[in-house]
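Structure, all two chains, one model.
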Amino acid sequence: MKLVNKYVDKNGAGHVTLRPEDDEDMWHLYNLIQEGDSVRAPAIRRVQNVSATGSTESHRVRLNLTLAVTRVTWAPSTSASAGDLAQAAESSSTPQNSTAALHVTGRVTSENPHVKMGAFHTLDLEVNRDVRIEKADGWDSIALGRVQESCVPGRGAEVGAVVCGEGTAIFCLLSEHMTVILQRLEVPIPRKIATGSSAHEKGLSRFYSTLYSSFLRHIPYANPSLRAIVIASPGWVRDGVYDYIMSEASRTGNKALLGARNKFLKVHVNSPHVHSLVEVLQSPEIVSQLKETKFAREGIMLDKFHKMLGTDEMRAWYGPEHVILAADRGAVGTLLISDELFRSNDAALRKKFVSLVESVRERGGEVVIFSSMHESGQQLNQLSGVAAILTYPLDVEIVEAEEREAKEEEERKAAEENGKGQ
Amino acid sequence: MSRHRYVRNIDVDEELEEDILSDGGDDLSPEDYELLMDRVDLVRATLGSEDQSGISDHEVKDTLLYYNYAVEQSVNWLLEEQARKNAAKERKAAKEREKAAKLAQSKATSPKIARPSAPKAAKKTAPSKSGSGTATPTRAVDQRQLDISALNLTAKEDAPVEEEPPKPTIALEKLLEEVRKEMDTQERSEKRSLSLVVIGHVDAGKSTLMGRLLYELGRVEEKKRMANERGSSKIGKSSFSWAWELDGTTEERERGITMDIALQSLSTPHREITILDAPGHKDFIPNMISGASQADSALLVVDSATGEFEAGFERGGQTREHLLLVRSLGVSQVIVAVNKLDQVQWEKSRYEEICSTLKPFLVQSGFQSSKTRFVPIGAMAGVNLSSRDSPESGALKQWYKGPTLVDLLDTLEPPSRDIMAPLRFPISNVFKEQGAGIGVAGRVCGGVVQVGERLRILPGDGTAVVKSISNDDHSLPWAADGSNVILYLTSVDPVHLSIGSVMCRPDNLIPLATAFTARIITFDIDIPVIAGASVELYHHSRDVPASISKLVSTLDRATGAVVKKNPRVLAKTTSAEVQITLRNTSMSGPSAQAPIIPLESFSNNKDMGRILIRRSGETIGAGVVLSLLS
């Protein structure tokens, strides 16, 4: 993403103009734009004019519209993109096409010659078109942080991953903030039958060949920005898959694929489901390669939280109420929080989480904002979206009891004052 | 006018059905009669006595027989029928009044055809009014058809029903009778069938033992044994020659490891045993679970070589995990075969050491000590499998005088079979066989399945007709609860068949669920379970990603009383009630459909109500389904 223009005063009022460049920028915009914000972006609208004689003419007008947002919808890219990516990478190093769709619906708020004020419009945000965002409640630290983060040039690696089981394969593309599932492949393989029939072998070879063709279609192996191609599976499926891919590549003379041989990593995971991606990111092979990337860090942090839960339950807290209580006591060492919480349409709720993040940062704690487009973020969402590793052990029940007492104390005081007042 | 025609059609059907019913319904065995009377009382408890409800005992009985003694359904039907009768009565009265009025006006303009139909319809719709007729639910369907046809709806949906007239339902009674007889004779002849899963740590010698055992019992031809021997020594793995009998795929043979369940059968003097040889490697535990859920009893193989037994039994070893898994899946009998004693010079002390280490763990895992037996063996040389006559067993003979492995297998107690339960057939394998069409393998978990039946496949909308049933190359007319069989299907779209689907009768479908409550026990885990934890849910041959969405309460392990409500975490070896929700596996938001699996509460069907929970390659808990939420 490119930052075209930024005018934000010290109170947070102002606007930011951004130029998205790829799918991930779309994801950033989705996280930035909220209900109530005003967004200005180019749009095409069919305008109908009725002449004095009653005849109508309609034409399509390209114009800039400013909307007060009522709804934002997001759809991640579909499988078609990666194929284009591979081709694009082969021909020239043109920037990636975006296929993620981000639609912003709202009422028109600025005057213009073609569209009435208050008319509804849905903007289909596109790459390389400037978007100006003005926040209704002002720019908070989280939003500004995201703008900054999204504009860092040459950001992190992309990783292609194939999670396979016997007869199943899931093709994913991991980028800094997103895991996109490109395809789920399922080939029925008959299990072995006592009467040593060849059905199992036949099914297996059919599975390999389908997997190979999907691999060519989905994984942009020749793209230099792709750092690694992970083949993960329980058992030995990954060896079979890797051998098949390489033998097919040399049989068909696919030089690009043979050249990418050193990008391949075989990782052992325990189940052939998407959530094994977390295990992939925790495996030593990946950690050593991609330590600095955001998604690897997220995986490690979540693992740390779980381990802490195992070793010292009093230092691993989760759930918004509890974590806020811990933050009040200055106990939060690392805060794990999902970006989904900041997308909340309830301004008060968002503010609550923003202030939580700010207070933890003020006290020198570490904050990791998880992307809910990653598996680790999804798992954090399951745990209510927020968790914390504390610097010193705190017993939830004692803290809750303290809070209750404090509350009762307050109530009693209030009651006393009321009593005095009367 | 069209109504008139329908009435006539139905007239014939009705009469036919009545004949069939009176053929099939009346010959009840004494136990059945007792059961019936029992259920009649239950129904009466809800409906009130004959005078209060206006429903005769005869009707109640007929209904109960039709619904296979399901009280709830019967009550519902009876109440509906009652309402219908009252309505019909009123209708007739109204028509009578109308007719009278018309006659009084003596207007001849009304259509003549309509008139005769009115009383006729009334007669048909309220046959029980005369008191002699016995309303049966079969007729109720017709009644409903009649009502529907009056609405001028096309009855196209009924076409497939036409293909197979109510034959199966009625035949079911007879079939059950037959099955029961067969089971009685089986019990008397003392050649009873059961299934056995072979478990143990990787490389304990499970497949080798089974291969050797099959050979000893004459299930493996000499020619095949020679071929296996030659083949295995050719690739330098001659020690795997016995295992090759069960490890059929090339990959398994190359790696020298079992990867999937192998199904074989053997017969001892008093038992027909279906053997499920499970893989021991921890990556293939899903396959092992699929096998163990089809078994009644277990054979645990442990490696007695120095250090090997310890490796299998310590934390993370499969000896421990497999035992817990099979126990959680309802297996209560286990034979422990202490293998490879030849490697420790047949030392008695080693055998006793292993037994004494395992015994407390077995008891602690819930195996009664009366149902666990130990036997020392040497699988490779065939020592103490069926006999101790070979020269290699000289050392063992000196101190061991107990039964051989086959003797122990021969005394395994088959569990009771529930043939009255609704049919459930979870699919564990789908394959095509030339000439036979599509075959599905699995175990009948309740009820009886017979050739010619049309079954539903859930989840999904598929149906299939059972073309033939086969068990170890014998063709069977039916298969009852607890038998491991292959069903060959016809008129089925293969896309509906997937491993993990459940087949059942179209009139009694297994419920589908995405969320349910379960009572679980957590195993020896490092990381406690918290609300929202991502896990994998294992149910028969299916595994799906799920999350523990809510921790309802922790329970006392012995009494089941609630210890704490809404706990924050579940530590190790805790009994708890939790809510489990299947996870939406894609990250693209709400558009993706939630997965759904066939599941039943434990109280309805024990086999279909057991679940296992695993996380990152470790079994963290096992439990039973309490109720389905959605």
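Chain B has a mean pLDDT of 79.
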